[in-house]
Design a protein that fits this description.
single chain; alpha/beta; TIM Barrel; eight-stranded parallel barrel; 10 helices; binds 2-phosphoglycolic acid
Length: 253
């Protein structure tokens, strides 16, 4: 799998200007970890300011609308994220799939809009606890990959998948390393089925209760190319511990 480990913080609906200090501290420290690609996805109100505040790390959105413009009150399109300085956007996060009832087809349209606007994409997939208990986890997740992956020419070069079991997000619970390995393998096979050889280079991140204490173990799993971090990305101290764990693995790997 190509590329540096990719450690991305998703601030969700957290952060006002005061929190830019955390972003600045993360950015300064990123210079010590050249073997890790680091990025933050703040709320869109902070994007422009964060872009101005940081130099080394990537900055991205948490979602975008599928249309380029128009009468969609409250929405933000991919071109606006790009204009505010974003390098990438997250799409299809399970909180949006659940609370905004986003379908695979909508997530795919958003990913395609983001790629057309010149952004990279982190596309999230993951099963619920009931789906895992029913033995359907791999089927559900590979169907999400199939239904939401963008068809845009050149898509695999600017696409990452984030596997985030819904039951692991914000709960402190994580799947076993064997379950993570099996799911990442299944996602890889689906990506190769969709994109051919180019599917081998798409980074697959793990997300869901990644913390300093479990980061090294999760990041060492085959096919785990990085982490999407929620709660532990809100302070420089907790986020940098995860970046440091990725850097240590990159040194030995
Ligand atoms: P968490 O969130 O790290 O707080 O579990 C991860 C995510 O939702 O991306």
């Amino acid at each position: 799998m190509a590329g540096l480990p990719y450690i991305v913080g998703n601030w969700k609906m957290n952060g006002t200007r005061a929190m830019l200090n955390e972003a600045r501290a993360i950015d300064r420290a990123a210079a010590r970890f050249p073997k890790v690609q680091v990025a933050l996805a703040p709320p869109s109100t902070l994007l422009y300011r964060m872009r101005d505040t940081v130099e080394l790390i990537g900055v991205g959105g948490q979602d975008c609308h599928a249309k380029d413009n128009g009468a969609y009150t409250g929405e933000v399109c991919a071109g606006m994220l790009k204009d505010a300085g974003a390098d990438f956007t997250i799409v299809g996060h399970s909180e949006r799939r659940e609370y905004q009832s986003e379908t695979d087809a909508e997530v795919k349209a958003k990913a395609e809009a983001a790629l057309s606007a010149g952004l990279s994409v982190i596309l999230c997939v993951g099963e619920t606890e009931a789906q895992r208990d029913a033995g359907d986890a791999e089927g559900v997740v590979t169907a999400q990959v199939e239904g939401s992956c963008p068809s845009t020419e050149g898509a695999p070069e600017r696409l990452s998948i984030a596997y985030e079991p819904v039951w692991a997000i914000g709960t402190g619970r994580v799947p076993s390393v064997d379950d993570v390995a099996a799911m990442h393998k299944a996602i890889r096979a689906k990506l190769v089925a969709i994109y051919g050889d180019a599917g081998s280079d798409v980074r697959i991140l793990y997300g869901g209760s990644v913390k300093a204490e479990n980061a090294a173990e999760l990041l060492a799993v085959p096919e785990v190319g990085g982490a999407l971090v929620g709660g532990a990305s809100l302070t420089a101290e907790s986020f940098l511990a995860i970046v440091g764990a990725a850097a240590s693995l990159a040194e030995v790997g």
